[in-house]
Design goal:
Layout (H helix, E strand, L loop, with lengths): L1 H11 L6 E7 L7 H6 L6 H8 L9 H10 L5 E4 L10 H9 L3 E6 L7 H14 L6 E4 L6 H9 L4 E2 L4 H4 L5 E4 L2 E3 L4 E2 H7 L4 H17 L4 E5 L12 H11 L3 E3 L1 H13 L1
Parallel strand pairs: 1-2, 1-9, 1-10, 2-3, 3-4, 4-5, 5-7, 8-9
Antiparallel strand pairs: 6-7
Length: 269
């Protein structure tokens, strides 16, 4: 068994260090009971019963994700919105995560007709009012164009992560402007289950295939996106399995700001 694992490392992960950048978007932290009952088949029965009894909240998984990441010595980036849901109920949780080393980025709602003031309002709310200090940004729905990227650069963000690797034509980060680094998304849970409509077994095979393809191309950075509210759903539960699988193959986990620092440091040398 040990020889098989070593062969796997050398053939699949044989291109030097590959950094795994862990990210989570937060689109919600609660749902109406009618919604939960409608999609009840997505949850384990025990989790569903605990939610219905008010013993847990299936859609608030910040610390559950942090706990599983802590088990493998990892920390991630949570992209948090100002507008999509009230932050008051989870602010203490987010502040605790930030204090413990997890990164908080801005999950920006982009409405071009509103101009740049809408983005500034969201940034000011998280940074100046709540004191969460986001260094990077990911657009809700991955809305991104030259106007958006220019705005992010002008607002002082160090990085954006709103572009899929298929759009970027590459897996590794690249500078859009001298002051803004793009971290392309390699793998996103919503694509696997919401767009490709894969079951968990087929999704796992697809993830393996896509990660091998990225690493065999010589990429040094792989950005994963799993939504925090989906952590205990079918599909989202694969995040834990994937994290341990990558850990067993001795990859180094980074937050987005770590990836930014590693990339910029390599350019300086």
């Amino acid at each position: 068994m040990g020889n098989a694992n070593n062969d796997f490392k050398h053939t699949i992960f044989g291109y030097g260090m590959t950094y795994i950048v862990l990210t989570h978007d937060a689109d919600s932290v609660s749902k109406p009971m009618s919604h939960v009952l409608r999609i009840r088949s997505r949850f384990r029965l025990t989790d569903l019963i605990a939610h219905l009894l008010g013993l847990t909240n299936l859609y608030d998984n910040f610390h559950r994700i942090a706990d599983i990441e802590d088990d493998v010595g990892a920390k991630s980036t949570f992209f948090i919105p100002a507008f999509l849901f009230p932050l008051d109920p989870v602010f203490d949780e987010l502040k605790s995560l930030s204090d413990e080393g997890w990164e908080i980025g801005l999950h920006a709602v982009v409405e071009r007709i509103q101009g740049d003031g809408l983005i500034r309002m969201q940034l000011n709310y998280l940074r100046d009012y709540l004191g969460l200090r986001p260094m990077g940004v990911r657009s809700h729905y991955l809305i991104c164009d030259e106007w958006v990227l220019s705005l992010y650069a002008n607002l002082g963000f160090r990085y954006d992560s709103s572009i899929r690797c298929e759009t970027a034509g590459r897996y590794d980060p690249y500078l859009i402007r001298d002051s803004l680094l793009e971290l392309p998304i390699t793998l996103m849970d919503a694509d696997l289950f919401g767009r490709l409509h894969l079951g968990e077994d087929s999704a796992w095979r697809f993830m393996e295939w896509k990660l091998k393809r990225a690493i065999n191309s010589g990429s040094q950075f792989i950005v994963l996106l799993f939504h925090q509210e989906s952590f205990r759903m079918k599909g989202g539960r694969l995040y834990s399995k994937l994290l341990w699988w990558l850990h067993e193959h001795e990859h180094e986990f980074l937050r987005c700001i770590d990836a930014y620092n590693v990339y910029m440091s390599s350019r300086a040398h």
